[in-house]
Write a structure and sequence with these properties.
283 residues; alpha/beta; two-stranded parallel ribbon; 38% helix; 13% strand
Length: 283
């Protein structure tokens, strides 16, 4: 919706509404999250009974101007039936009401508010990469600290440096870490995976972290304590993540550090998680 958003920015709400109504029969082109949504909805076709995955549309449009969006959804045959059109207000407050596990937006402020309300959320970044639509399996990749896990250890690293961080993780290796904002979402994915035979699952998950040995042990023991299986774990010891994410074939990668997101977005679709010590509120 870049063109119509530009009308809103340059000419205001009235002109934007007029533009949307005049163009409501013109299809919108797929956006950053389109391949991800398409693959998520396809999971329902492989499981009997009620749909396990639902995609909700949350929009600042009014229902009137949002008609163009639903026309496009119908054209692309996306099974999306529930929506909240908030007429210019932030839609984040409906994330919890819908019982959502994940909120994706290009509005960083809405993402922060969703995170503050206990929902996994990320700001989708423009990506130079294209998703492999021919690949049926959907591949998620997650950073560790401040995404899957709390940022307690990262705070030690930021305050006292790498040596103190390493010593803390060695001493606490058998103590599971607290969950981060994406723990519940990873758990939901694990629940879906468990409905398939391991080699037939349409979902694959990976942990892609800057940690290395000996700080890896606490990560492994934490996931074991949570009773959550993660398919691949990459401990990169500070190396750039982009090439590894490309090799893994991630459909989307979530990280709390903007510099890592900027690098990753050159290779895969990326969501910035504005949470933890790396993301002070004044930024």
């Amino acid at each position: 919706m870049d063109d119509s958003h530009q009308v809103f920015e340059n000419e205001g709400l009235d002109k934007y509404q007029q533009y949307q109504i005049e163009h409501e029969d013109e299809l919108l082109q797929p956006g950053e999250a389109f391949p991800l949504v398409k693959k998520l909805l396809a999971i329902n076709e492989r499981l009997p009974g009620d749909p396990r995955v639902e995609v909700l549309l949350l929009s600042r449009n009014s229902a009137d101007t949002g008609l163009r969006v639903f026309n496009s959804i119908e054209h692309y045959e996306l099974n999306i039936t529930r929506a909240a059109f908030t007429g210019g207000e932030s839609p984040y407050r409906y994330v919890s009401a819908f019982g959502s596990h994940l909120f994706l937006s290009t509005d960083a402020q809405d993402v922060r508010r969703a995170l503050d309300n206990g929902v996994a959320a990320a700001t989708l970044m423009s990506s130079a990469a294209s998703s492999d639509d021919d690949k049926e399996q959907i591949r998620f990749a997650f950073d560790g600290d401040a995404v899957l896990f709390s940022d307690e250890s990262e705070q030690i690293y930021k305050t006292h440096g790498l040596e103190a961080f390493t010593e803390n993780e060695k001493a606490a290796a058998k103590e599971p870490m607290s969950g981060g904002p994406f723990k519940a979402f990873l758990s939901a994915l694990h629940g879906l995976q468990s409905e398939f035979a391991p080699k037939e699952s349409p979902i694959r998950t990976a942990l892609v972290t800057a940690r290395s040995a000996p700080a890896h042990e606490r990560v492994i023991r934490t996931l074991r304590a949570w009773d959550i299986r993660i398919d691949e774990s990459l401990f990169l010891g500070g190396w750039d993540k982009g090439e590894f994410l490309r090799a893994y074939g991630a459909d989307v990668f979530f990280d709390d550090q903007k510099t890592h997101c900027d690098s990753a977005s050159q290779h895969v679709a990326t969501g910035h998680v504005p949470h933890g010590v790396a993301n002070p509120l004044d930024q």
